[in-house]
Amino acid sequence: MEVNKPEIVAEVTAAFVEYERALVDNDVEAMNALFWHTPETVRYGIAEVQHGGEAIRAWRASCAPVPRSRRLHRTVVTTFGNDYATVSTEFTSDATPLLGRQMQTWARLESAAQAHQGWKIVAAHVSLIAMP
């Protein structure tokens, strides 16, 4: 298995950038499209937990948008072969003095005809800590 093939890193990075755009724009439809919609999908949020695509979509429909001042730092995309990746990033915003941390597991699950070559978030974790 080859780690960090440039073309796969580019695909995952494009999908991640699209998700981040949707997050900041509060484009719920786009965010939902980039999450795997199955009972196996898990999202651990800052103050909540969702198990399954339905729970994630229900939460998205009612949650407050992220601050538009959100800025990413130290984003790391790591790919494994052609169909599996992790994206880790830190974030800050004017809304809190805390440092945010976000990790996503991505998998290619659908045909290349799908948006972003079928890349979907299959697990995610978001947390806040005091600034180091």
Description:
The protein has one domain (about 5-130): Roll (Nuclear Transport Factor 2, Chain: A), CATH 3.10.450.50. It contains three helices and six strands; from the N terminus they run H-H-E-E-H-E-E-E-E. It has helices spanning about 5-25, 30-35, 55-60, and strands at about 40-45, 50, 70-80, 85-95, 95-110, 120-130. The protein has a six-stranded mixed sheet, covered by helices on one side. The model has no long low-confidence stretch (mean pLDDT about 95). It holds the Pfam family AtzH-like. This is Oxalurate catabolism protein HpxZ. It comes from Paraburkholderia phenazinium.
Biggest sheet descriptor: 6 strands, mixed
Distinct helical segment count: 3
What CATH calls the topology is Nuclear Transport Factor 2, Chain: A
Helices and strands, in order, run as HHEEHEEEE
Query: What's the Cα radius of gyration?
Result: 14 Å
> Per the principal axes of the C-alpha atoms, what is the gross shape?
globular
- The CATH class, by name, is Alpha Beta
InterPro entries: AtzH-like (IPR024507), NTF2-like_dom_sf (IPR032710)
Pfam families: AtzH-like
Protein name: Oxalurate catabolism protein HpxZ
